[in-house]
């Protein structure tokens, strides 16, 4: 649990599978981290490291992307945006110790400083989130410079706030007056329902970008030129070598599915490992929902279960189309 606030307590909200999500919630994004990149060569350096097109990223936009190893396996999935005098690179904290040194490996040859930030990360969620951002901060665009930091629009019901330690308490106090307070599990639920991928330490270097649907989320540029792992990513598109995709599954569970957990699939009368949990959320009524990497040729009526458990799980519809031609 984060300890940056002396007056606000962020706890998990008890939600059943059928409950509406809060109209406005302030989320403490413990478990997430931020890398900053500043310097004259920040754009060109990052362009050669990641899957997304950094050069074309407008000042008021953000993008998903992946940072891969030379074999095309992902070290992280991140959201990139303009922040202060450089870029903000929002990702899971659990991969920071291994991924950040790899991102910095060749920076000595460029005019770029790459560091982990100590800024406070908050989420504002719900149907009233955008109106509250407009009211409190003003401005226009999906990425806005605000007092003390940056506000980044994630989707129709979510904003990411990156705030200096000096401003975080004051800004959070203003927003908390009208919002429910939640820990980061509410953010997890949004990500899962919207099928937004992530890489945690337990799944680092396991998936190529298309196996987590990044081609369907405009997180891969196939025209930008070379970057680390680009050959594998291109072969997956043009030669069809990728045999996996990320799906939403749900079912009864006595515990919250964790990244790296095994999901089994039914094969006749037997069960075999079917995939790997990417992120999970447990509801208050004994149901759970998760993102999972699975073979992309399974029958639609395939049944699943968490390894070591008997309860049957089923695949749910994705909120977007998996389009390899994208």
TrEMBL record:
Keywords: Cytoplasm, Folate-binding, tRNA processing. The keyword Transferase does not apply. Folate binds at residues 32, 187. SUPFAM superfamilies: Aminomethyltransferase beta-barrel domain, Folate-binding domain. Residues 242-308 form the tRNA-modifying protein YgfZ-like beta-barrel domain. It is found in: Cytoplasm. It holds the Pfam family YgfZ_barrel. The keyword Membrane does not apply. Folate-binding protein involved in regulating the level of ATP-DnaA and in the modification of some tRNAs. It is probably a key factor in regulatory networks that act via tRNA modification, such as initiation of chromosomal replication. PANTHER family: TRANSFERASE CAF17, MITOCHONDRIAL-RELATED (PTHR22602:SF0). Belongs to the tRNA-modifying YgfZ family. This is tRNA-modifying protein YgfZ. It comes from Photobacterium atrarenae. The gene is ygfZ.
């Amino acid at each position: 649990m984060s300890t940056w606030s002396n007056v606000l307590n962020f706890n998990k909200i008890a939600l059943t599978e059928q409950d509406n999500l809060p109209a406005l919630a302030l989320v403490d994004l413990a478990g997430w981290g931020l890398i900053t990149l500043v310097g004259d060569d920040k754009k060109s350096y990052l362009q050669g490291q990641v899957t997304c097109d950094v050069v074309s990223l407008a000042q008021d936009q953000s993008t998903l992307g992946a940072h891969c190893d030379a074999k095309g396996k992902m070290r992280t999935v991140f959201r990139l945006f303009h922040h202060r005098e450089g870029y903000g690179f929002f990702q899971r904290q659990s991969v920071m110790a291994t991924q950040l040194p790899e991102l910095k490996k060749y920076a000595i040859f460029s005019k770029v400083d790459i560091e982990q930030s100590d800024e406070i990360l908050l989420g504002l969620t719900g149907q009233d989130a955008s109106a509250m951002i407009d009211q409190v901060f003003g401005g226009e665009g999906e990425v806005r410079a605000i007092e003390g930091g940056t506000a980044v629009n994630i989707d129709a019901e979510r904003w990411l706030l990156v705030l200096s330690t000096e401003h975080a308490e004051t800004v959070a106090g203003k927003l908390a007056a009208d919002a429910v307070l939640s820990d980061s599990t509410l953010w997890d639920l949004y990500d899962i329902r919207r099928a937004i991928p992530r890489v945690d330490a337990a799944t680092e270097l396991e998936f190529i970008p298309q196996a987590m649907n990044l081609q369907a989320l405009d997180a891969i540029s196939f025209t930008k030129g070379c970057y680390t792992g680009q050959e594998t990513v291109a072969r997956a598109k043009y030669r069809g070598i990728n045999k996996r995709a990320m799906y939403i599954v749900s079912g009864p569970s006595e515990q919250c599915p964790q990244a790296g957990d095994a999901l089994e699939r039914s094969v006749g009368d037997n069960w075999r490992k079917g995939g790997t949990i990417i992120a999970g959320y447990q509801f208050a009524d004994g149901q759970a929902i998760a993102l999972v990497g699975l073979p992309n040729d399974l029958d639609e009526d395939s049944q699943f279960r968490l390894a070591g458990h008997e309860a049957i799980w089923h695949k749910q519809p994705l909120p977007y189309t998996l389009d390899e031609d994208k």
